Amino acid sequence: MRTVFITGASSGIGAACAEVLASEKKYRLLLCARRLSKLTELQKRIQAQNPDCEVFCFELDVRDQSDIIQKLKNLPNDWKDIDILINNAGLSQGLDLIQNGDPDDWDRMIDTNVKGLLYVTKHTIPLMQESTHPHIINLGSIAGKEVYPSGNVYCATKHAVDALTKAMRIDLLEKGIKVTSIDPGMVETEFSEVRFKGDKERAKNVYNGLTPLSGKDIADIISFVLSRPAHVNINDLLVMPTAQA
Ligand code: NDP
C-alpha cells in the first residue's frame, strides 16, 4: 500500500483523486483541507464503497506554515511515511484588470497557490525518505502556460507553480523523487464559484456551451501517471476539454 497525501481534498479534483485512488485498492489516503466536515463526508463515502481503504483526515490551511509543521509532527505514527504528495490545494479569486484588482485577493492566491505549495512540499519531503517510489504531483494549469484577459495574478501563480515543478525535479533528483505537473484547462468544480465569490450564475456561464472536464477526468490521469514503472516519469501533462480553444 502506498500512502498518498492530498491537499485540498474537500472538493473538486482533490476529492475525485481520493475516490479514484481508493477504488484501486493500492493506496491509503491522508487528506487535508480547511473544511474538515467535507473531508469527513468524503471519508464516509469512500469507506462505504471501499471498506478496507484506510483514510486519515485533518484540518489544514496550507498558508499556515507553523500549523503544517505541527500537524505533520502530530500525525499518528503509522501515517508518518508518505509515498506520494498531491499538491492540489489552490484557488482563483477575482477575475479583473490589474488596475481594478483587489490586493487581498492577490495575497490569497499567492499565499495559497505558491507559498502554501512550497511550505507543504518542504515539510513533507522528510516524510518521504523511506519510500521506494516517492512522487510529487503539482496541480498547475493552462494558466501556467498562457495568460488570459484579467487572469493576471492567478496566471502568475500558476506560472510560478510551473517553474517550481521544474525546480523540484532538478533539486529532488538526488533523492529519487519523481515530480509531475498536471495542467488542466476548464474543470467543473467549486473553482469557478470561488473565483466569482459565490455567484453561481456567473460561474456557470464560464463554460459557455462547452463540456468542461470533470474532477474524475483529472483523477484518472493522475492514477495513470502514478502507475508508470519506477524508471518512467511524466514531467508535464496539459489536459484540455476538447472544445476549449
Ligand atoms: P475546488 O475549489 O473544487 O477545490 C480547491 C480545494 O483547495 C478545496 O478542497 C479547498 O478546500 C482547497 N483549499 C483552498 N484553499 C486552501 C487552503 N488555504 N488550505 C488548504 N486547502 C485549501 O477547485 P479545483 O478542484 O478545481 O482545484 C484544485 C486545483 O486545480 C487548484 O490548484 C486549481 O488551481 C487547479 N486547477 C483547476 C482548474 C479548474 O478549472 N477547476 C483548472 C486548472 C487548474 P477548503 O476550502 O476546504 O480548504
UniProtKB/TrEMBL annotation:
Domain of life: Bacteria
Family (UniProt): Belongs to the short-chain dehydrogenases/reductases (SDR) family.
Pfam families per record: adh_short (PF00106)
One Gene Ontology MF term: oxidoreductase activity, acting on the CH-OH group of donors, NAD or NADP as acceptor
Keyword annotations of the record: Oxidoreductase
PROSITE patterns tied to this protein: ADH_SHORT (PS00061), PROKAR_LIPOPROTEIN (PS51257)
Protein name: NADP-dependent 3-hydroxy acid dehydrogenase YdfG
